[in-house]
TrEMBL record, chain A:
GO BP terms in the entry: cytoplasmic translational initiation
GO molecular function: transferase activity; translation initiation factor activity
Top-level taxon: Eukaryota
Annotated family: Belongs to the eIF-2B alpha/beta/delta subunits family.
Name of protein: Translation initiation factor eIF2B subunit delta
Subunit organization: Component of the translation initiation factor 2B (eIF2B) complex which is a heterodecamer of two sets of five different subunits: alpha, beta, gamma, delta and epsilon. Subunits alpha, beta and delta comprise a regulatory subcomplex and subunits epsilon and gamma comprise a catalytic subcomplex. Within the complex, the hexameric regulatory complex resides at the center, with the two heterodimeric catalytic subcomplexes bound on opposite sides.
Biased composition (Low complexity): 41-57, 231-271
Chief location category: cytoplasm
Region annotation (Disordered) ranges: 1-72, 101-130, 195-321
GO cellular component, one term: cytosol
Compositionally biased region (Polar residues): 101-110
TrEMBL record, chain B:
Record function comment: Acts as a component of the translation initiation factor 2B (eIF2B) complex, which catalyzes the exchange of GDP for GTP on the eukaryotic initiation factor 2 (eIF2) complex gamma subunit. Its guanine nucleotide exchange factor activity is repressed when bound to eIF2 complex phosphorylated on the alpha subunit, thereby limiting the amount of methionyl-initiator methionine tRNA available to the ribosome and consequently global translation is repressed.
Main location: cytoplasm
Record domain EIF2B subunit epsilon/gamma LbH: where: 354-445
Transmembrane region(s): none
SUPFAM superfamilies associated with the record: Nucleotide-diphospho-sugar transferases (SSF53448)
GO MF annotation, one: translation initiation factor activity
Keywords noted in UniProt: Cytoplasm, Initiation factor, Protein biosynthesis
Family: Belongs to the eIF-2B gamma/epsilon subunits family.
Recorded name of the encoding gene: LOC18590017
Pfam families named in the record: LbH_EIF2B, NTP_transferase
Domain of life: Eukaryota
InterPro entries: eIF2B_gamma, LbH_EIF2B3/5, NTP_transferase_dom, Nucleotide-diphossugar_trans
Protein name: Translation initiation factor eIF2B subunit gamma
């Protein structure tokens, strides 16, 4: 039981880190001392343009999405892993049946299997390929890595880690934390290497223990400034990654197997965290060093930081919707946009006829977002796509312009208008990405009407395949998890969960539903109404009572706004709380999320990216004037109201994610995202999708029985 | 934005005699020295609505109005003038120009509306709710009698006729009941069905229908075609639509949509159903949706349509020129509190034309307007009045709370209170007028006194 317990501590929420952190240098670095090996490559990498051309993570795809190609070293690494596996004992596999499959899983991560990696070795100059692997191989072999427990992704420069934790007898989970910063700025690199060099001299283990000791207070102390610094660094890193996108493979090759961590207590996240805090200042320094000009040249950060006054000013000038910044904002969430809600809608309404370039359908959708008439990820996405379809239908290419370019610009302007109405959800972002790629892919030979028809067809296909069919498949999968006598709990109103419940009811399963709701939206009531009408037996309660009601619940079904690549479920605020309670009481938590909502972003908290709702909504209780205790206080300076829309549920609390690609026991969000990107690259071939999903579902066992 | 704008300019209104005449149809009645139609057109132009259809009753009036529009808004607006026969009502007017209407939605504005409420707001509200009709409601203007003090008893007795009874849902989004003018003398009937569906109705009488409507074209045309008896948009069509909102006979546009899908596969139709269901579930249902869905939650059993209300904020100005009292009020307001409707700049509360000649010791009080080319003698007093262009006003004349139009000659020692004096009127010396309306071209003999009378030339 010892190993299990230790594994458990790893996933213990108390040592969960908040913020951006990196893996510590592995203790065994001292032996191989990889930095020295990297240096030549690093210097040569910019001067090897062929790499750029051949790299699959070229310009068409974000460098973040596809792991850089592996070279021989990776295959060697894999063989090394396999070679070590018989020698190392299998303390875990003895206990659970699933470990071999986990092992299989791991091997799927190991680069040798990658489709993309096939090309890459050839793209690499042979000399380097031969020189690097040797060192890496030694590094790997030194570590006694129990296979399937924790694996290193050498390609991810910013260290990844796979953790296996035995949470329960019936729940085995692997959550992979992969920080997808494939490539960072070079100076950053240098900094870190210095750091590692220093450490490698000394006793690394002691350092780590030190770090462990320090980690707790650090966590509490993370102030705004620090987070800010982290974000700054993150942004800089991202920008650099973009700039050097094609260099990523080269850069990746520089990094040795950076984090081969044993599943022992000391080596785990605490050290990670601490290292993060150490690297952060250096990163910050790097950011300062980078010329200001460069930063301006960089593409703007996708998510604007709203505590940056100058940028906000600029954005305001462009804005269509009048945005009055709310006065009293919570300090922690200053970087998120928050506006006075009362003024936006009337102001936008007045401008109805003045927004000439805006298509009426898009405008209508924007209005509906703004007024809250449409909410919910799927509905918003569908509404947006249908509006775009209308817009494309009425689109006429202006003279002396090409459809591909002009339409893309047009769609972009629509999107920015919609963002002003309400920040996009991740699902919408993915849909927009899809649409834009479809536009870009249009052959020039098509006539305008053909192109429009094909685009409209594409949109229909997206809605049908990615949303409707996906929901159907999810329902099909999820229904198998509902048995007679179950008590199912759901939170809020998720369209997927609703379909599941209704379908299970139609199948004649006997179960009860607990609908948990929360103020101020009370959207659960709408769901409840529909469920009760269909004859389901329901219990309705508010989230305050979730700890009490959870005792009788056998399964929790949750919807999600997005599933991120580290397995974090980004969903309606309150979901995390429900999931945590369920986890604490050993109730399986099933998250239903269509695959188009997956995103390669990694988010560890719900602070850095979130949405702020109307603060008035929580200060006033509609229909009950007698409890308006906050009247007159709302504008006082020492009162700050916070109405968060989303929260992030750590993957630890999620037993299973049900997507249209199958049920994922362990959160292989990353894999899904990768498969998706690959499929996208292949032109969206559906059969390929199916094959991938088969593969995924095969290697992800479903251990949910008997709970 | 797929909106067409129809301005119902009207013709020679009976309410406004003797102010209007063949020469000065209602749209050209000057309000603060500008034709009243200018305010509507200006407002529309500000909202970037440049393609308009202006409907005028009577051919002659149409010619006059057309001439004025092309002179004033040349190159700025693209206006089609449609002349319709008189006395066919606003619904009849729409019927007459029905074949010109092609856009999805129609914005119908009365030509006598003086308002700063942006039409876009009405249109956007209409679109947002996907309504069949959206009516703009504004608070009844703080009415003249109390403020101007001196208006005649005749107007006061007329006033109650303008009240409306308007029922709104608790969210003040939907129109549940509307009864206007004359109907209120009788008992008002509320529909039980609507009341039951909504659960709660707010009945207000402090709101007024401003006669700015956004209609769904298909529905409007269908209703007008089917119901020949409907005469007026305000009194017939709107109440009809509001009445029938829960058992809609009009909304047939859902059927063609189903037909469109007919040629596709059944599976895709299923998908369509799912899409619409997801969308429907995501939005907060209005009582229409709840009512239309049968109790087992299956397909809609009843057709409904939404009638929305856009309530103008209390800070905005909104008034209709449909009576003499309103004419006085609007004149006063436009020069006074609502002077932002006039694009011209006023230095201190009054607008005095550049070429106006004032005699010695002549005072022009605040909230006044003096047109260009007018001349005033010595020791005159002008308070809260509008004086048109090229008027000649003698000495010791007192003009209070009055409207004097163009080319009026006023002799020495006249006292004019609360009156309207139309163009080309001649007032000889020492005329005293109180609460009078003097029709165009009338000559008031020296020394006569009138109170609360309407003076006009006999029709030739």
């Amino acid at each position: 039981m010892d190993p299990r317990r230790s594994a458990r501590t790893v996933s213990d929420p108390k040592v969960r880190q908040v913020g951006f952190f990196t893996q510590p240098p592995p203790p065994d670095r001292s032996i191989s001392d990889p930095p020295r090996h990297h240096d030549p490559i690093q210097s040569s990498s910019p001067s090897s343009p062929p790499v750029n051309d051949h790299s699959p993570s070229g310009n068409s795809l974000s460098p973040v999405m596809i792991p850089p190609p592996r070279h021989h070293s990776d295959t060697l690494l894999r063989t090394a892993l396999q070679a070590t596996s018989p020698t190392t004992s299998f303390p875990y596999s003895a206990r659970t049946v699933t470990v071999p499959q986990e092992n299989d899983d791991v091997s799927s991560f190991s680069p040798g299997r990658r489709v993309v990696s096939g090309k890459s070795p050839s793209s690499f100059p042979g000399v380097k390929a031969s020189s690097v692997p040797a060192s890496e191989l030694t590094t790997v072999s030194v570590v006694n890595l129990p296979p399937g427990i924790s694996v290193d992704f050498s390609a991810y420069k910013e260290f990844g880690m796979v953790r296996v934790s035995l949470l329960d007898e019936h729940q085995l989970k692997v959550s992979c934390f992969i920080i997808l910063k494939t490539c960072a700025m070079k100076h950053l690199h240098a900094e870190k290497e210095k750091l590692t060099a220093e450490k490698s001299g000394g006793a690394a283990v002691e350092v780590q223990n030190d770090q462990l000791a320090r980690s707790k207070p650090l966590k509490e102390k993370t102030s705004k400034a620090e987070r800010r610094a982290l974000q700054e660094a993150q942004r800089a890193a991202k920008a650099a990654a973009k700039a050097e996108g094609s260099k990523a493979p080269a850069a990746a090759s520089k990094v040795g197997p950076s984090a081969n961590t044993k599943p022992s207590k000391a080596a785990k996240p605490p050290s990670q965290k601490n290292d993060g805090s150490q690297v952060a200042p250096s990163e910050k320094k790097g950011g300062d060093r980078a010329p200001e000009k460069d930063r301006k040249k960089d593409a703007p950060h996708p998510r604007m930081q709203y505590d940056d006054a100058s940028r906000v000013e600029k954005a305001k000038k462009r804005a269509v919707v009048k945005q009055t910044e709310a006065r009293n904002r919570v300090e922690l969430f200053r970087h998120l946009p928050q506006y006075e809600h009362g003024t936006q809608l009337p102001d936008l309404e007045t401008k109805f006829f003045e927004l000439n370039p805006m298509h009426p359908a898009v405008y209508k959708v924007g209005l509906q977002y703004l007024s809250g008439d449409i909410c919910g990820g799927n509905a918003r996405c569908i509404a947006m796509l249908q509006a775009f379809k209308e817009a494309i239908k009425d689109y006429l290419t202006p003279p002396e312009k090409t459809l591909i370019r002009d339409l893309t610009a047009r769609i972009s302007s629509y999107v920015s208008f919609l963002i002003e109405c309400r920040p996009l959800s991740i699902s919408m972002g993915n849909a927009i990405k899809f649409l834009k790629s479809q536009i870009a892919k249009l052959p020039l030979s098509l006539s305008e009407s053909e192109a429009k028809a094909s685009l409209m067809l594409d949109i229909d296909r997206f809605i049908n395949e990615k949303i409707i069919l996906a929901d159907k498949v999810i329902v099909k999968h999820a229904v198998t998890k509902i048995r007679d006598g179950d008590v199912l709990l759901t939170y809020g109103a998720s369209s997927a969960v609703e379909m599941i419940l209704l379908h299970a009811h139609e199948l004649g399963k006997q179960f009860r539903v607990v609908v948990v709701d929360s103020r101020p939206k009370l959207e659960g009531q709408l769901l409840l109404r529909r469920l009760v009408r269909k004859g389901l037996s329901c219990t309705y309660t508010h989230v305050n009572a979730v700890s009490c009601i959870m005792h009788e619940v056998t399964r929790v079904f949750l919807g999600a706004s997005s599933v991120l690549s580290n397995g974090t479920v980004y969903s309606r605020v309150g979901t995390a709380c429900v999931a945590m309670v369920a986890h604490a009481l050993h109730v399986p938590v099933l998250v239903c999320c269509e695959a188009y909502k997956f995103h390669e972003r990694v988010q560890l908290d719900s602070i850095c990216s979130n949405e702020l709702g109307n603060p008035d909504a929580i200060s006033k209780v509609s229909g009950r004037e007698e409890i308006s205790y906050l009247d007159g206080l709302v504008n006082s300076d020492n009162l700050q109201l916070l109405n968060l829309i989303y929260d992030a549920t750590p993957s630890d609390y999620v037993s299973m994610v049900i997507t249209d690609y199958g049920m994922l026991l362990c959160l292989l969000g990353l894999t899904i995202v990768e498969e998706l990107t690959m499929v996208k690259a292949c032109g969206g071939a559906a059969h390929k999708c199916a094959r991938h999903c088969e593969r995924i579902s095969k290697r992800t066992p479903m251990v949910l029985d008997g709970s | 934005m797929d909106f067409q704008v129809v301005v119902l300019a009207g013709g020679t209104s009976k309410n406004l005699t003797p102010l209007v005449s063949k020469e000065v149809p209602k749209p050209l009645l000057p309000v603060a020295n500008r034709p009243v139609l200018y305010y509507v057109l200006h407002q529309l132009e500000q909202s970037n609505l440049k393609d308009l259809i202006v409907v005028v009753e009577g051919k002659d009036a149409a010619l006059l109005v057309g001439g004025w529009i092309s002179g004033t808004f040349v190159d700025r607006l693209h206006v089609e003038i449609a002349a319709v026969p008189e006395d066919i009502g606003s619904a009849g007017a729409i019927r007459a120009i029905s074949h010109h209407l092609t856009a999805n939605d129609i914005l119908v504005v009365s030509g006598d509306l003086v308002s700063d409420v942006p039409p876009g707001a009405v249109a956007a509200n209409h679109r947002r709710h996907d309504a069949v009709v959206t009516a703009m409601l504004c608070s009844v203007p703080i009415s003249g009698p109390s403020e101007s003090g001196s208006s005649g008893g005749k107007d006061k007795t007329k006033k109650p006729g303008r009240y409306n009874i308007i029922g709104l849902d608790p969210g003040k989004q939907f129109l549940l009941h509307i009864a206007t003018g004359a109907e209120i003398e009788k008992d008002t009937r509320l529909q039980k069905r609507i009341l039951r569906a909504v659960g709660e109705m707010e009945i207000r009488s402090d709101l007024m229908d401003a006669h700015m409507y956004a209609f769904k074209r298909s529905v409007l045309q269908e209703v007008l075609d089917r119901k020949d008896t409907l005469q007026s948009l305000k009194q017939d069509v709107l109440p009809y639509l509001v009445r029938s909102q829960l058992k809609s006979e009009a909304l047939l546009n859902r059927i063609p949509r189903a037909e469109e899908n007919g040629n596709e596969k059944v599976s895709s139709q299923n998908n369509q159903v799912m899409v619409s269901q997801i969308l429907a579930n995501a939005s907060t249902p209005s009582f229409h949706d709840l009512c239309s869905v049968s109790h087992d939650g299956s397909a809609p059993i009843r057709k409904t349509h939404k009638c929305c209300a856009y309530i103008a904020s209390s800070s905005s100005y909104c008034a209709r020129l449909n009576s003499i009292q309103a004419f006085m009020d609007i004149n006063r307001d436009v020069t006074g509190e609502a002077d932002h409707l006039l694009s011209s700049i006023s230095d201190h509360n009054n607008i005095v034309g550049p070429s106006t000649k004032l005699g010695t010791k002549t005072t022009v009080g605040p909230h006044c307007m003096l047109g260009e080319g007018s001349e005033m003698g010595d020791k005159c007093q002008v308070k809260r009045s509008v004086i048109g262009r090229h008027c000649r006003i003698g000495s010791h004349v007192k003009v209070v709370n009055s409207v004097v139009m163009n080319h009026v000659t006023i002799g020495d020692g006249c006292i004019i209170q609360g009156s309207v004096i139309c163009s080309n009127v001649q007032l000889q010396e020492r005329v005293v007028l109180k609460d009078c309306q003097v029709g165009a071209g009338f000559v008031v003999t020296a020394g006569s006194e009138y109170k609360g009378e309407s003076l006009a030339r006999k029709e030739k």
